[in-house]
Amino acid sequence: MSINKEVLTEIKENLQPYVGTSIQLRANKGRKKVVERTGVLESTYPNIFIVKIKERESERRVSFCYSDILTDNVMLTVTKNGEPMSFTF
């Protein structure tokens, strides 16, 4: 199955304005394991985006591919004008 590069570029372009804003992240880790975290969209690159997550006393950076959003392995929710907005395709 070939993923259309235009769709992945569109996802990147839709995420770009939210760099530096707080997001809610829900990642499917397989075998019914789902991780939910709140973090900051730190940066976007041609093939990946990075989320900085603060847990207790430490910070860590997690990277995901844009195809993770396309395949619903990762769901992002950003609060825009007081209303949550999800990135789904």
Strand element count: 6
Counting DSSP H or I runs of 4 or more residues, the number of helices is: 2
What is the CATH-assigned architecture?
Answer: Roll
Number of domains: 1
Average pLDDT figure: 87
Q: Record the strand order, biggest sheet.
A: 4-3-2-1-5-6
* Biggest sheet features: 6 strands, antiparallel
Helix content: 10-25%
The parts where pLDDT drops under 50 for at least 5 residues are none
Radius of gyration: 13 Å
Shape: globular
N-to-C series of helices and strands: HEEEEHEE
Q: Note the beta-strand portion.
A: over 45%
Distance between the termini: 17 Å
Structural class: alpha+beta
CATH class: Mainly Beta
Structure notes:
The chain is an alpha+beta fold. The chain has a single domain, classed as SH3 type barrels. About 20% of the residues lie in helices and about 55% in strands. The chain has two helices and six strands. The protein has a six-stranded antiparallel β-sheet. Strand 2 and strand 3 (about 50-55) form a beta hairpin. It is globular and about 40 Å long. The model has no long low-confidence stretch (mean pLDDT about 85).
Properties at a glance:
6-stranded antiparallel beta sheet, SH3 type barrels, 89 residues, 2 helices, alpha+beta, single chain
Mind sketching the topology for me?
Layout: H1 5-15, E1 22-30, E2 33-44, E3 48-55, E4 58-65, H2 66-70, E5 74-80, E6 83-87
